[in-house]
Every structure is written in structure tokens, then in C-alpha cells.
Amino acid sequence: QVQLVESGGGLVQPGGSLRLSCAASGRRFSLNAMGWYRQAPRQPRELVARITNTGTTTYAEYAKGRFTVSRDNAKNTADLQMNSLKPEDTAVYYCFGGWRGLDPDYWGQGTQVTVSS
After folding, report:
1. What single string gives the DSSP state of each residue in 82-104?
2. Contact 14/86 with Cβ under 8 angstroms?
3. Taking a C-beta distance cutoff of 8 angstroms, is the pair 111, 4 a contact?
4. What is the number of alpha carbons within 13 Å of residue 76 lying toward its C-beta?
5. Other residues' Cβ atoms within 10 Å of the Cβ of residue 81
6. What are the tens digits of pLDDT across the range 59-102?
7. For residues 89 and 82, is the Cβ–Cβ distance under 8 A?
8. Do residues 21 and 70 touch, judged by C-beta distance below 8 A?
9. Do residues 89 and 73 lie in contact, with contact meaning Cβ atoms separated by under 8 Å?
10. At 61, is the secondary structure helix, strand, or coil?
């Protein structure tokens, strides 16, 4: 079984920063892709950022220049550094792992990010 545990959410002011982390729980595993989706109330879940095991990154347009996704392949961990946060970034952020492709096969439990003054 593969479990992803994420942390780092919280309440920040506009313009502030948060760093989200995602790590394996239990046995080691290898993932082709890791990243985050986010979901605001009454909105569909949307891709925020993704990184493959070769380092190829994909970002939502709103994340470009503000967010940076990285991973440690040996540890199967990933981080999402979020800078210059805006109120519209408020959402539950779910880390994910893709086993063979780019789409999620495993989900973290979600962490609330609230950007408010």
C-alpha cells in the first residue's frame, strides 16, 4: 500500500509564503510523477504543479513565477514552495503520486491553505 502524507498548510497573509511537503508513509515506493492539486469550495479540483522523476515540471498558469515544485527521487518526497500568495490561492491542497503516468493514482489527505488579511 502507498500512502502520502502532506503537511505545511496554514493561514498566511497576502504576499506571504508557505512550503508544502508530501512524503511516503509506510513502504518505499517509486512514482513517475508527484505534485499538487487544489480545490476551493464549489470548484473543481485543479492541477497546481507537477514534477516527473526526470525533473520535468508543469505549472498552472497562476502558479508560474510564484510556486516551485521539487522532489527527492530517492526518498519519494516532494515540496511545493508557494510565494507571493494571494487570497485566490485559498483552497485545500492535495498532494498526489502517479505510479506510471502523470495522473494521480494516490492522494494525500489534503491540507488547508488560507490566504487572508
Report:
1. E-S--GGG-EEEEEEEESSSSS-
2. yes
3. no
4. 20
5. 16
6. 999 999 999 999 988 888 999 999 999 999 999 999 999 988 99
7. yes
8. no
9. no
10. helix
Nine-digit cell string for 89: 490561492
The values of phi and psi at residue 75, to 5°, are: -100, -5
Residue pointed to by grid coordinates 510565494? 83
Reported as a pLDDT band with limits 50, 70 and 90, residue 15 is: very high
Q: How many CA atoms, within 13 angstroms, populate the side-chain half-sphere of residue 1?
A: 4
List all residues 6 or more positions away from 22 whose beta carbon is below 8 Å from its beta carbon.
4, 5, 6, 34, 36, 77, 78, 79, 80, 95, 97, 108
| Cell numbers at 8, concatenated | 505545511
